């Protein structure tokens, strides 16, 4: 699985480096699935930034295929 919808937002699987880039830039938020510890390879992209959803979904698919 490389993307999921979570409470109206999109959670995307990317490399930990890319996740950090999105969090540091403010374009993404850490994703904590309820464990109290954010996932290092997941970033939450809010619906207010849905213009990023399609390009990031494509990037995520390529990343997951490469694993």
Could you characterize what this model shows?
With 67 residues, the chain is an alpha+beta fold. The protein has one domain (3-66). Helix content is 36%, strand content 22%. The chain has two helices and four strands. The protein has helices at 16-25, 53-66, and strands at 3-6, 9-13, 29-30, 42-45. β1 and β2 (9-13) form a beta hairpin. The mean pLDDT is 94.
Class derived from helix and strand content = alpha+beta
Question: What's the structural domain tally?
Answer: 1
- Number of distinct helices: 2
Strand content: 15-25%
Overall form: globular
What radius of gyration results from the CA coordinates?
11 Å
Strand order of the largest sheet: 1-2-4-3
Query: What is the number of beta strands?
Result: 4
Q: What proportion of the residues is helical, as a percent range?
A: 25-40%
Mean pLDDT: 94
Low-confidence residue ranges: none
- How far the N terminus sits from the C terminus, by CA atoms, comes to 12 Å
Q: Write the H/E string, N to C.
A: EEHEEH
């Amino acid at each position: 699985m490389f993307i999921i919808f979570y409470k109206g937002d999109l959670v995307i699987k990317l490399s930990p480096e890319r996740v950090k880039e999105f969090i540091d830039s403010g374009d993404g938020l850490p994703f904590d699935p309820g464990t109290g510890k954010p996932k290092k390879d997941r970033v939450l992209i809010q619906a207010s930034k849905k213009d990023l959803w399609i390009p990031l979904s494509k990037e995520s698919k390529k990343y997951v295929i490469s694993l």
